[in-house]
Write a structure and sequence with these properties.
Elements: H1 5-9, E1 15-18, E2 28-31, E3 43-46, E4 49-50, E5 70-77, E6 91-97, E7 105-113, E8 117-128, E9 131-142, E10 147-148, E11 157-170, E12 173-186, H2 195-200, E13 204-205, E14 213-228, E15 232-254, H3 265-273, H4 277-283, E16 289-313, E17 316-332, E18 334-340, E19 350-354, E20 357-378, E21 381-399, E22 418-436, E23 441-454, E24 457-473, E25 476-493, E26 509-529, E27 534-549, E28 553-555, E29 559-561, E30 573-583, E31 587-596, E32 599-600, E33 610-611, E34 614-624, E35 629-636, E36 644-647, E37 653-655, E38 660-668
Amino acid sequence: MDTDIQKILTAVPGLYMRTEEGYGLRPNISIRGTAIERSGKVTIMEDGVLVAPSPYTSSSAYYFPTTGRIHSVEVLKGPAVVSQGPQTNGGAINLISTPIPEVNSGKFIQELGQNGMARTHAYYGVNSGNFGALVEVHEHSSDGFDSIANVGGDTGFDKSDLMFKAEYSSGNHTLKFKMVDLEENSDQSYVGLSQASFNANARMRYGATAYDEMMNDGEQTSLTYVGDFDNFNIVFTSWQNDYHRDWFKVSDFNNLKEHGEQDDINELISDANNGSANAQAILDGQLPVQIEYKHNNRYHTNEGYQLTVSTEIGIHALTLGYRDMEDSESRVQAHEYADQAADGSLSAIYGYDGLNNSNNRLRESSATSYYIEDMLDFGKLAITLGYRSEDYEQRHRRWSDKAGPNLTEVRIGPADNRDTMAYNDHTTSSIAATYDLNDTTTLIAGFHEGMTPMFGADPEEADNMELGVRYSEGTTNVEAFYFTSDYSRLAAECTLVSGAACDADESAIFSGGEAEVSGIEFSGSIVLEGGNGVSYPISVNYTSTDATFKNSSESDYFGLVAAGDDLPYIPDIQSSIIAGFITDNGLSGSARLVNVGSSCSIAACGIYNKIDSYSSLDLSIRKAINSSMDVYVILENTLDDEDLISRAPSEGARSQKPRTMKVGFSYDF
């Protein structure tokens, strides 16, 4: 079973992914050329509710639902995304959680794999009369596949989810409650490798990162009412999501002036790439330095309610949606230190130093939005008109008080370093049409205005268009689309992992001017029937994309950009082929080959920003022992390729996950 959302989404054309840590815990997803970093330009939902920790204030906040417990995945592209939002340029992803079963039943899954990997997934649901409930547990851990130079240590993670659902129905009325409790500890680092280090050992981390650790915890609750009336349907949901994360990680190397080097970790990697022996020696742990670690400590809230009303009047299928919500990001950050000796060993952590100003701040957004969608049915022709309105207010405050011991919040009196307000109201519209040529073939066309909120600044905006055709007959399904996105204002937020020269003004918004993304998507699937009760499902997906800046510019985020430069991290092509077999005796298997074209980590692409094309092959085989139990084996990256697949920050090289075998069984009861 796939537990990496990025592997699952390779089956969908028009989507690009950048690997973060090899397990899909924090995916970087782009839909039709949106900026890929932390999936911040994609609307992420679970069961139709926004689950980004702060969708308006800080959508790229390093949280994604645990894929291993997800039942199914919906991807929306084109005009359909106008009904979701707030990010409506590329698309939306809706993750469907495990449903309450119709009869009392459950499932138990156990996996074991290399590098100390273990995954336990279990759920049980009851359904009696008008009442149903489900309890689900998902535990996933690994020691990690990277080694740590000089000092050793684990590079894996331990992540757990607990979900509870309850549902009560009476006549045409249903009330649903859902709660998710989550916790994660990951020995993960955002630091890549210099090219020399990568060439020597692609799956090694610098000793300085041995203390790097991400600690997350959160709770999500929602209450939903569904009413089915004679002339219309109502869905009302109220939710509250609280999320905390502290990513303790290398920030700077101090006392480097005596070695003639810059202190920032990203700059040090760049210096090493440019031939500095001292910079490489510091990274390798061969020179004594003081290492500065930073608690990137954030508290996020996301709460509100949404209402959807739908009805049919003549040829019109009308839907009205309304959402009222608030979200926030509170930063309370600090530094700690360790000494690296000339033999690469590390001292214990010492010297807690609370930070103020941009490290002691509160950003808040309150937003209301509504959309109207009208699908007109003219028989073979269907036209859907959409309109969306976003109105949001944002406040940014900073305090000069330093964080207290153990990252406790200290804010004495009103914000004394900054207190600013920003207002935005934005409307977008869409039109989509489908025409049935015959029983098997449908033509599709669509246009929609898209936007992405940017905190304290004007939103990113683009006009988006698609033209396509769908063919379906028997087990054969084919889709082909042409799409374009014309950005009148490309925008980006500075982050510590962006690799840009804007870290001194983290979270500042930068404009990249105008840009254009165009591409072709193709997907096809067929099931071939063989002899002796064997069938062969095959699917092919292909995306070709041209994503370029339309004007020249210079900024601390985008750097020096010339018209015609490629947008970062959008490869020219991506394809996947999945071929399998299914037998009558319960034996099945599949092979998945994914190819990703070349790209660059920044627009002004230097030699150490290039990412060459690469591929990966996964194999799996499954056998049904009886009607209740299956056993399976999965082999990831079968050829054990060590291709460079990411440079994050901009010059830090990272390799793909090594060949990894895992075995498991599932039992239905």
